[in-house]
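Annex B. Sample input.
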Amino acid sequence: MADLYPRTPSGLFPSRPPRPTYREPHRVRAGGLTAGLGAGVAWLLFIGLLGRDLRGYVWWTVLAGALAWAAAWTLSRQGDRGVAAGVAISTGVGWSVAAAAIAVRWGMTGDWPLW
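Annex B, continued. Sample output.
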C-alpha cells in the first residue's frame, strides 16, 4: 500500500537548490487598510451629501471617487499601500452604490436620471 504522506528527503542524494521566496517589501497592514477604508467612506459620504437629488449625488460621487483614486495612486507609489488599498476599495463600493441607485431609479421610472 502506498504511503499517504510524502517522505521528506534525507539529504543523502543531492537535490535542486530551494526555490526563491519573494516577499513584499512594504506589506499591507490591517491598520492602514482600515484607516483607508474609513477615510474613503467619510470622503464619499461628505462629498455625496452635497448633491440635492440623485443626479447631483451621482455626479459628486463620481468626482469625489476620481479624486480619491488619484490620492490612492499617489499613496501607492510614494506612501502607505494599505491606506491606498482601503481608499480604492471604498471608492469602488461607493461607485457601486451610486450605480445601483441609478439602476433602481431607471428601472422604476423608465427615464435615465443623469441627463
